[in-house]
Fold these 2 entries.
Entry 1:
Amino acid sequence: MDIDLKPSDLAVIGRYGIVTEIGRGGMGIVYRGVDKLIGRDVAIKTLTEVTPELRDRFYVEARSGMLSHPNIVTVYELGEHDGSPFIAMEFLDGESLERVLRERGRLPLLETLSIVEQLCAGLGYAHQCGIIHRDVKPANVIVLRDGQIKIVDFGIARLTDQMSRLTKPDALLGTFHYIAPERLKGEISDGRADIWSVGVMLYEMVTGELPFRGKDVSALYRVMHEPYVPVRDVVNDIPETLTAVLDRALAKDVNLRYATTEEMAVDLQVVGEELKQERVGYLLDTARRLCNEREFANARTVLLQAQRISPRDPKAKLLLQEVQDNLNLLQRSEQVRQVLEQAEEAAAKRQFDDAITFFSQAAQLDREKAFDITAKLEQVRMLKDQAQRGRFLWEQANDARSKGDLTQAEQFLSEALRLDEKSTDLRNARSIVLREIKRRQDAAQVEELVSSAREEYSARRYTEAIAQLHKAAEIDPTDRHLHELLFSATTRQKEERRRRLLDQIVGEIEDCLEIPDFDRAQDRVSRALEALPLEPLLIQLKNDIEKKKDEAAIAQLVRSTILEAQGLFTEEPVQALALVDAALLQAPGEENLTQFRVRLEEHLRQIQREELRKKRLSQAHVALKVGRYNEAIQKLESAKAEGAEDSEVLELLALARREQQALQSKVVIQETKKPVEPLDRQRLKMPLLATLGVGMMLAVVAAFWHTRHGARRIASQPHPEAISPAGVARTYLDLNASPWAVVTSVQSSAGQAVDLGGGDRTTPLRLDNVPIGRYTVAFKDADGIQQKIDCVVSAEQHLCTATFAMPEVQDALRGDQP
């Protein structure tokens, strides 16, 4: 049968409350619990699988409860819960030696000797009681916080008279490194098998390693047939005497091994002789602490260890005598306490003869308190005399009652109770007489109260009538007519209260709705419906409140959503629209939200159009910078088609068109120059006069071109009022015209004129120290024709051009006569 008990499934096991799970193994679970009777912490061990073999092991472990030793865990109880056995034992606040070794490795020699000596003491006591542990290993030794050790898990122990050879299941139960060779071989074993286990643990604590290496079958062979690894091969600071102890404890020949754990403990004390003073001081300190905690039995054990180390130590002898005196006093005090408890219990049960006997025994045991005990003895004797006199008066009371004289009977019983006030029989007899007296008085009082209640009822004073009837019912609760009248009065009273309550509730709810406080109104009507669940008025009020609360909630939702969306719209317009949509899911079709959403969508479209406009402008600027004027025109035409017809788009579009036109004019000039180039090449082949004629023409054209197109620089000197603001960058502006022109003025977009100086202003002309911005440049050609060109000056853009007709030059280049 598999049983899986979890703390969440358990409240108690037996009489023990479950606190938490401590550990879980292949065969059992250990819980921490508390004994509900005395509030003591316990450890509760259960089985996860109940088989006959495991149940037998469990019962064997429980039999270790017969052992009472400071170094052996105390078993409190063996019981069953839901068909599964459990053991309640002492809760140990410490760690297993196995974990200590795993975390710390080697242990100090003094600590090791203390643990092994305590282990020998506990096992020696168990051996003397006829119990062999048979599974001694670090996992079954608990080291408490104060250094004391406890031996646990006697699950595979055997009584001495039941010793037999190791069976296969037994072999599987133990860890073979700690099992004596004779047990592994199936031979008969006794307490010396436990001594072998102690020797292995001693070796492991001293070296941090096992005496026989490995975990497989070869290691098992070494345990049975080969010597252990010498201690000095592992550690050097080990006394020779300790090596001798290990040799005897780990002797494969049982007859060469220690006969008892006490014998081994004595040899270990010899090993610790050089540490005697430190060890004795430690034990004395421990004993004093235990004495302060009034744990004299444990203190005696510790002091006995100290005496074994240093038999002549005067402090240990003196403290041991003091502890023994306290133990004797406690033992005698316990005896006296038990006898006095029996005496008090007998006196409480009015068993006066037994109480006198127990008090007399207690006085004999405790001469020091004999005076106090004798006083109690005399008191019990006096109580016995009073009880005898009380019984005589009781007999007289019974005689008077039989004659119908209840008053005389009550007097006799009262006198008897004054003599024997704790007599339950006298109290019962007097109670019977008093009830009979009271019954006669109650009948008259009930009749009077009912008569008064009828008068109040007739006057519609229901509360007063009910009060009178309750008094009567308390006197005689069995009167049927009384209860009928009480029911009628109560019904009338409830109807009256119901009417008043409804008026009050409606008033309170109306007050709440005026504030408004819907939660309070709902709470009030809900509490009212608990008292009046079927009241139609309350049900209607409840529905009205819920409707008004929902309307108010929607209104609040609309207000908060609009406010939050307005705050979000500037930075997160899409999120603002999503917020409104989420609110519309909660309030579908809400008019204000719907209208607000329409406005948001329109604002969002405006934002999107503005972003698209900026994008087109940015693309156009980039195209202008690299001279892709057609592309810039296309982007700006797209922006215009998309609704962006503001001045910035229009001005930039005009600039792009002018730049494109200028570029086209430059191409024309280049095409115009091409006819002259062949003349220069033919000059060398012509006759001298013709050559002179062509040369003169070329000279005229070159002079004309240089005169008109040789670039000059003019440092711009803006008027004082036209000085650009601090932080505005400056650059240069190239002015040109085709074929040529005179620059008449340059004006910024703010209307401020740029000083051109008094020199030659014919193109090409360059202005330095010009602030970045927009300018309008006026050109005038040789025919007096003027053009105004809008230019943009930036860190990348510096050229501003105008195009005029060139008839004379073109005619001359073609060879036409004027």
Note: The first strand starts at residue 12 and ends at 13.
Entry 2:
Amino acid sequence: MKKNISINLQGIIFHIEEDGYEVLSRYLTEVKAHFASYRGHEDIVADIEGRIAELFSARTSSIKQVITLADVEAMTAKMGRVSDFAADDLDAEDVEETAQATASGSTFGPNGPFGPQGTFGPEGAFGRKGPFGPEGAFASDAATAATEPRRLYRDMAHRRVAGVAAGIAQYFAINPIWVRLGWIVLVFLLPGLFHMFEDFGRGQFRFSGFGGWAFLAYIILWIVLPKRYDAPAPNEAMLNQGPLAGRKLFRDTGTAKVAGVSSGLAAYFNIDVTLVRVLLLAGLFAGGFTLILYIILWIVLPEAKTVSDKMRMRGDAVTLEGFDSSLRNSAFSDAPTTTNRPVGAFVEDAARGLRPLVDFAGSAIRIVAGVLLTITGFSLLLTLAILLGAGIGLIPNSEHIHMGDAPAHVMLNGIPVWGIIAGFFAFGIPALSLFLSGLNLLLRRSLLSRTASLSLLGLWLLSIVGVTMAVAQQSREYQYDAEVEQLERYPAITTPVIMLEGRRVDRDGAQRVNVRLASADSGRTVEVLRLLGSKGPSEDEARRNALTSIDYTVRASGDSSLVLDDHFSFLPGAKYRNQEMTVTLRLPRDRTFRLSERFANRMLRDEHFVNNRRPSNPEQHRYRLRGNKLECIACADTDTAGSTTTEDNDDVNINIDINDNDDDSSSDDGDDEDRSSGSGLRLNYGGAPSFNTDFESYGSARRTFEEQGFNKVLVVGGYRVVVRKGNAFKVEAGGDEDIIKDLRVNRSGNTLEIRPRNTSFFGRNWKRGEEKVLIRVEMPSIEKLELAGSVQADLGGFDRQERLEVEQAGASHLRLNGSYGTLKIEQAGACRTTASGSVNTLDLDAAGACELAAANLQARTATVDLAGVCKARLHVTESIKGDAVGASQIAYSGQPSTSRVEATGPSSVKRL
């Protein structure tokens, strides 16, 4: 057992053993005696004590909190002793006194601990050349410092804002200045550079969003990282690496003109300060970026106030000899050092005055972030609790509580209770973390102990294992799919004019019924063929699921009307197995038909009408069958000039699903007369919805652009775009005046770029209303079309073109028509494409939840690669090859002679 003493070194409390305290006390007494004759000796001694405190801090940790004699001895070896450099300055009297001390065996005698050959002497174990001295094999204090596991935290002891950069520097053992500069480059310099040189950031992924994401990452780390107030100072291992070993970047205000940035850089890199100032001025006139860099460095870099700061700035060793040498060279002048930097002094005073405002802004950000996190976490917890109640039967079955493609009680039915509970914890614990993080920010204290946090982490990991097992078990329920046909006749319908009506059933979009029309011989009875599809662990079980889980009603109303539900429902006790339903109406050719508004606009699509043209008011006309399509009788050209497809599709649903036609009126690439062979297509391919292409429907504002000489088109945003073939170049926009003012159209090389003029801090214009603008582009030929965001585009009129490349990202929609030699389509996100015409070679590469409806596109050969939950409907005549990975689906017709298409996992490939 040893006695400990508490000491205070420059405001830092250390616990030191008694024998170590005695050695340290004698050491400091020697230091004070040596520097007592120097001007400003009190500040010098305080600086030396601060350096000692740094060395002691580096040798303490959570498991070692007491400074021992060995630590003191290592410190003196690191700092050196006065006798190491002051012996040559002793006069004869000092030599005589030293000799007398030697004869009496004093502390500084030859045999004493501080003598030439003693433990702390020049040749001793802890001397300059000893094994534990500055030049010895074990000189680094890192080798003897107590080790502790690395943890990522916010270093509050050395912070500039919130301690994030300092904490990251501590974790990776690097100089904090480089972390701060890297963050500044990401937030401020990179976006500016990429805005200046936009060719570097072309395409769907632009670098201008780096600033926003880097700022967001800082805020997240600010919130989630724990604080540490006793973090050690950046040690020598951080500062003494590379060609600039031993140097630290400061602002040298002693020789400054404005803020000391140039002087500090010159001292750090050991170059002439004039050269640095010339380079900064050159950058100012070359674009002004060095002004921003100067201001940032002014804010970030600390001022070199003390002797030790100036020594680190020049790379001098922070030892007693270094202090002595620095003071001898620069501190002996009696003339006071003055600087003429009125601009810098004024700005710094103004910054100090604005500090309360900055503190207020920081508090406001903390409160807003806390409120958002609390509300988000609570909302997620409430949603998960409702789903848990529905899954285990605590909440009555409701068609209005949805989970993905089906009501929650249907989706969760058949999943074991332990799997549902595991899923609740797997998603609930992160939601609880968000909720508690928000409360932590608001209350400014942690609400969970370390033990509770670790317990939740263990429970979450266990729940992830449970969810994985439940998913593996449920995946077996989707291995096979099967279809069941049900035929119903309606002889009661006998009138020459048949009314086809749709009945609204309030169900999810995934339960929408796919309607097909098929002509029957004259005189035949009206028939309805239902095709029920489902999945299961075997084909027999899949058929049983289809028969016992789907409820759908078709009824005759009198002798002239046929009423069909627009959605199917799930029977009580049904289990979700990706059920789908297709209804084929077999209508006699010798009858005429009338359509209700719901049936025409909600259950039929443009492709159900001749020439894909649905009348603007379909309920006001009569129709007859031509082939398998409806032909309007006595319709004027103006009645079928444009589609009146509703704009429900503009509502974005976060839950993206391959079977979810999120708008009841979207266009469908369903099978028509050339696919009525009873193949029973049940896949629901909505394709891209059509949109109004008339300028008058968007607004009165018009703008014409003068761009010429392009053969590629890039569109970013949420605009409606029509691209047509023309003899000359023409770009025109119409619609809302404010949105058109925000529109930027320019040519970059061979590419016509259409995008919003103003982008947010996160690199994207989140302003709504871009769908209120229609842009029409005419060009002689097109080689490439790029769509990003929520663009809706219509491209057509380009016949007998050799090659066309299409790239889609986000939730873009494209309707494509024409004949091409090679058509290459790349999709990512939740894209939708409807294609018609003919191609020799089709190359499709899709990932995410994309969809290609190309039953009306005649392709000789096709290569298809799908990943995620994508769908593709093709018509191929010669050969098709490809892969479907994840939960993707490929369906193709045309009887190709060569077919090499593989499906992995729950994906499926179907030949029609």
Note: Residues 4-144 form one domain.
